[in-house]
Structures are given as structure tokens and as C-alpha cells.
Design brief:
The chain is 43% helix and 17% strand. By secondary structure, it is α/β, with parallel strands linked by helices. It folds into two domains: 2-180, Rossmann fold, CATH 3.40.50.1970; 183-369, Dehydroquinate synthase-like, alpha domain (Up-down Bundle). Strands 1-2-9-6-5-3-4 form a seven-stranded mixed β-sheet. The protein has a two-stranded antiparallel ribbon with strand order 7-8. A hairpin with a 6-residue loop joins strand 1 (2-7) and strand 2. The N and C termini lie far apart (50 Å). It catalyses: 7-phospho-2-dehydro-3-deoxy-D-arabino-heptonate = 3-dehydroquinate + phosphate. One of its GO terms (cellular component) is cytoplasm.
């Protein structure tokens, strides 16, 4: 059984296809060909993944595609944010060249957000743009990174500074693959889920509050998992459909990311997972919003309680310097006319965007939410 969520855009609309989370549901990855056959794609496919994910699911995907008549080659990139670089993109280009990928050919991303972002960027720039498909295998990628067409790589001085908008032709989500996801990665994905509850979907927030645990895939029942994935994808689709290129509304999806990205950058993309940075960023942003009288203390405490329930950090590591964070914020993609734009909650399910935040206030809050070693 599938849930189909359309991402409606002026051009390049596509579907998010979510399979049943039931453990005995029909294996969805082996049905990939059924989902892509209506897209009328060329027969050459370059599958990009990492060694760990490919070991679990690569053979199933490749066999399915080859049985449907596709000519499939694979390229594996080592796991981790530190490999999200232009060097890795060059390796994908090399694989595309060696296998004579044409404009009708397709790149398929099988993996988490790092693989999805890089594959999408390579597809956006190979022969000035070829089709690509997202098969996310992490919770974070399922609910966020694989949807919306943001693709790219990191610069040593900033996250995702190099990239392009390039929408996938399809996003295929099988929640059952999360059983092989490391616990820490699952928790990191929950940060984005909590974000949707805060910025857009009060009902989702309430579902999360009612859950006994959010910190482990094995402790979440199938119904809640399906709700988490479906409502999060619907929230992302709603926002992207209204603002594809982040000219206004879509910026709210960056709640928690402003400070979170700075923390990731300053720790070399090797110590802090993206979702962990977002969790810290949401705590800090919530605290700033309270001090600006934009959000209630009670609502901020509810948010922070969910973050803790998901097993996510609520404090910035002691070694991350506040002044370095403030300086790094100036390179953030959301800076406009030299001013850092923050997304702040007003109530659960509603946020606003402002650039009226002083460095002194940021400094004050960072001191409060940084771990005292």
C-alpha cells in the first residue's frame, strides 16, 4: 500500500511515494521499476550510494532495475558529511562520463541526505541537467533532505554554500529500511520532524508529545511512524509547493538551522550530525524568541522537552566558541543586506522571520545554552 503526496510546482511537479511501515508489507524497493516506468526515462541509470547502504539495499534496487530493462552502473561514496565536497562530485562526473550518461539518463540517490544532495547536484550540472530520483534511507532524508530540490555540497567555511535547485522526478520512501539506521542517525532525523511540528503542524507536535518514546526506531509503533513520515512529508510538500526557490515562505524550513549550520561548520562536519545541530539551533532560537517576547516560555519548554525525548542534545558543546558562531552566521545563505535572518516561533505551528536580532542577544543566549565544561 502506498501513500502518494504530490509536490505541485509551476514546472517539474513530482510525487512523494510512501510505502507502508508495516513490517510484512510488500518490499517496496524491489517495486521501484513499477514506480518509475510511468516517468518515461532513458534506460541508462547511475546509482549513487555509500558502501553501508549499498550492502543492505543496493542489490535489491539494481536487480529490480535490470529486470525492467535498465542498464545500471553504480558509484559508491564513503559515508559522512566530510565527503560532501566538490571532489566527490567530480568522482560522480567521472562515473557518468565512463558510462556514457546522456541527457535522457537518470541518476538515482540511494542513501541519506549527503548522498541525496550530492547526487542531485551532480544531476543538475551533468549535461546541464538530467533526471534524478531520490530513494532516502535515513529519517532525516525521508522527511526533509530528499524533498524540495535543494542540492549541493559544503564549502570548508560553510554548509551547502555550493548548490542548485533541481527537483527529483520521484521520491520513493520505504520506512521499513529505518530498521538498519543507527540509533544516533534516527534521533538526528527526529530533529527535523520536531521542526515541522513547531513551524507548521500543531497536530504533528501533539502526536509527538503523546508518544512515550521518540529516541529509537524499535520503540515507535508502526502507526506513529507512518504518521511521522507522512505528516512531515506533507508539511515539506506544502511549503515547497508555495515557494519553490525560497523567495519567502520556504525560509521557515530553516528553523534551527541558522545556528545549527554554524555549529556543524565550526566542528568540521565530523563531530555533530546535522539533526543534532538543528536541535541545538532550535533550543537557541526558541530562547531568543522568548527573550524578544515573540514566544511563550511554556511553549519553548514543550519544544525542548520533545528534543530531549528524542535523545537529542539541548546544549552546544563547550569547545564551540560563541564569537566564532556569530562570525560564521555572516556566511549563512539566509543573510540579506548583511543582516542574519532568524526564524522564530510565535506559537506551536506558526513562525515568523526577522532580521532584528542583535549580536549581543545572540551572545547572551549562546552563553546560556552552551555546555559549561
Amino acid at each position: 500500500m502506498y501513500t502518494r503526496i504530490p509536490v505541485k510546482l509551476p514546472q517539474d511537479s513530482y510525487d512523494i511515494v510512501i510505502c507502508s511501515a508495516a513490517p510484512h508489507a510488500r518490499a517496496s524497493l524491489s517495486q521501484l521499476a513499477d514506480q518509475i516506468s510511468p516517468l518515461n526515462l532513458g534506460k541508462k541509470v547511475l546509482l549513487v550510494s555509500n558502501p553501508q547502504i549499498y550492502e543492505y539495499y543496493g542489490e535489491s534496487v539494481v536487480n529490480c532495475l535490470m529486470a525492467a530493462g535498465f542498464v545500471v552502473t553504480t558509484h559508491l561514496i564513503p559515508e559522512g558529511e566530510i565527503h560532501k565536497t566538490l571532489d566527490s562530485i567530480t568522482q560522480i562526473y567521472d562515473a557518468a562520463l565512463e558510462n556514457y550518461l546522456e541527457r535522457s539518463s537518470t541518476m538515482i540517490a540511494l542513501g541519506g541526505g549527503v548522498i541525496g544532495d550530492m547526487t542531485g547536484f551532480a544531476a543538475a550540472t551533468w549535461l546541464r541537467g538530467i533526471p534524478f530520483i531520490q530513494i532516502p534511507t535515513s529519517l532525516l532524508a525521508m522527511v526533509d533532505a530528499a524533498i524540495g530540490g535543494k542540492t549541493g555540497v559544503n564549502h570548508p567555511k560553510g554548509k551547502n554554500l555550493i548548490g542548485a535547485f533541481h527537483q527529483p522526478r520521484l521520491v520513493l520512501i520505504d520506512p521499513t529500511v529505518l530498521k538498519t539506521l543507527p540509533v544516533r542517525e534516527f534521533r538526528a532525523g527526529m530533529a527535523e520532524v520536531i521542526k515541522y511540528g513547531v513551524i507548521w503542524d500543531q497536530a504533528l507536535f501533539n502526536h509527538l508529545e503523546a508518544a512515550e518514546r521518540l529516541d529509537n526506531f524499535s520503540e515507535i509503533n508502526q502507526e506513529l511512524l507512518q504518521t511521522i513520515v507522512t505528516r512531515s512529508c506533507q508539511a515539506k510538500a506544502d511549503v515547497v509547493s508555495k515557494d519553490e526557490k525560497e523567495s519567502g515562505l520556504r525560509a521557515i524550513l530553516n528553523y534551527g538551522h541558522t545556528i545549527g549550520h554554524a555549529i556543524e561548520s565550526l566542528t568540521g562536519y565530523s563531530q555533530i550530525l546535522h539533526g543534532e545541530g538543528v536541535a541545538m539551533g532550535m533550543v537557541a532560537a526558541g530562547r531568543i524568541a522568548v527573550k524578544l517576547n515573540m514566544w511563550s516560555e511554556q511553549a519553548a519548554l514543550r519544544q525542548d522537552a520533545l528534543i530531549k525525548k528524542a535523545g537529542l542534545p539541548t546544549e552546544i558543546p563547550a569547545g564551540v566558541d560563541a564569537e566564532a558562531i556569530i562570525q560564521t552566521l555572516q556566511t549563512d545563505k539566509k543573510v540579506k543586506a548583511g543582516k542574519v535572518r532568524f526564524i522564530f516561533p510565535q506559537e506551536i505551528g506558526t513562525v515568523t522571520i526577522t532580521d532584528q536580532v542583535t549580536s549581543d542577544l545572540i551572545r547572551e543566549v549562546l552563553a546560556e545554552v552552551t555546555c559549561q565544561a
